[in-house]
Amino acid sequence: APIAVDSVLGIMEDRATATNVDLRDIRMVEQVGGTIDDTELVNGLVFNKGSSKSGGGPSQIPNAKIVLIQFCLSAPKTDMDNNIVVSDYAAMDRILRDERKYLLGMCKKIKKSGANVVLIQKSILRDAYNELSLHFLAKMGILVVTDIERTDVEFICRSLGCAPVAHVDALSKEKLGEAAHVGDVVMPGSGHKVVKFTGVKNPGKTMTVLLRGSNDLVLAEANRSIHDAQCVVRSLVKKRYLIAGGGAPEVEASLRLKEYALGLTGMDSYCIKAFAEALENIPYTLAENAGMKPIDVVTELRKQHAEGNTGAGINVKKNIVSNMYDLNVLQPLLVSTSAINLATETVCMILKVDDLVVVQ
Question: In sequence order, what DSSP letters do the residues of 299-338 get, joined into one string?
Answer without folding.
Answer: HHHHHHHHTT-TTEEEETTTTEEEETTTTT-EEEHHHHHH
